[in-house]
Amino acid sequence: LPPNHPSLATSYNNIGGVYKNMGNYSKALEFYEKSLQILEKALPPNHPDLATSYNNIGLVYDNMGNYSKALEFYEKALQIFEKALPPNHPSLATSYDNIGLVYDNMSDYSKALEFHEKAHQIFENALPSNHPSLATSYNNIGTAYFGKRDYSKALSFLEKALSIFKKSLPPNHPNIKTVKNSIDNVKKKM
């Protein structure tokens, strides 16, 4: 294939994903950036695949603790998704959630809550009431309220998350344990 063929971008992206999962973030960035360079030349500037590429790079920076770079790439992804997708698309919600999680990591819980609530509105309208992504959304909001030390609201959202996870996931799923631990932490603070 020619060096700028979109299929190469897919391969580079997949290799980047493997390196990310292995925790080798510098190699992940190297391959994600190769993929992005091809996609930027091959696709129109508002193509959702470009947004996915920006999102993947943002995720690596987030995992590395470089939150300003993570936000930069997550916001590029969000700008494309806002133009290219309908306002109730789950990918748009995921983009809002990713930005919210960075703000959580930065301890800016009010800003985190703003983005988690935007995501939640979309998930609530687009997904069935027992969908695990909706539970994750409740969990993210609960976590932000915990950060704000509003423990009663945190507990309410975490319990909603747990209820959905129990209905939609196997009983030994790690998300169930994580939410139960969060609920225990909230109760200790109360």
TrEMBL record:
| One GO cellular component, as annotated | microtubule
Cite the PROSITE patterns for this sequence: TPR, TPR_REGION
What Pfam family does this protein match (any one)?
Answer: TPR_12
Q: Name the UniProt key words of this record, in alphabetical order.
A: Cytoplasm, Cytoskeleton, Microtubule, Motor protein, Repeat, TPR repeat
Q: Does the keyword Repeat apply?
A: yes
Tell me, in one coarse class, where this protein mainly resides.
cytoplasm
SUPFAM superfamilies the UniProt entry points to: TPR-like
Any signal peptide, and if so, which residues? none
Asked whether the UniProt record includes RNA-binding among its keywords, one would answer no
- Subcellular location field: Cytoplasm, Cytoskeleton
- TPR repeats at which positions? 9-42, 51-84, 93-126, 135-168
State whether it acts alone or in a complex, and with which partners, per the record: Oligomeric complex composed of two heavy chains and two light chains.
**Protein task:** Kinesin is a microtubule-associated force-producing protein that play a role in organelle transport.
Q: Which PANTHER family match?
A: NEPHROCYSTIN-3, TETRATRICOPEPTIDE REPEAT PROTEIN (AFU_ORTHOLOGUE AFUA_6G03870)
Per the similarity annotation, which family is this? Belongs to the kinesin light chain family.
Protein name per its UniProtKB record? Kinesin light chain
**Native species of this protein?**
Rotaria sordida
Q: What is the lineage of its organism?
A: Eukaryota, Metazoa, Spiralia, Gnathifera, Rotifera
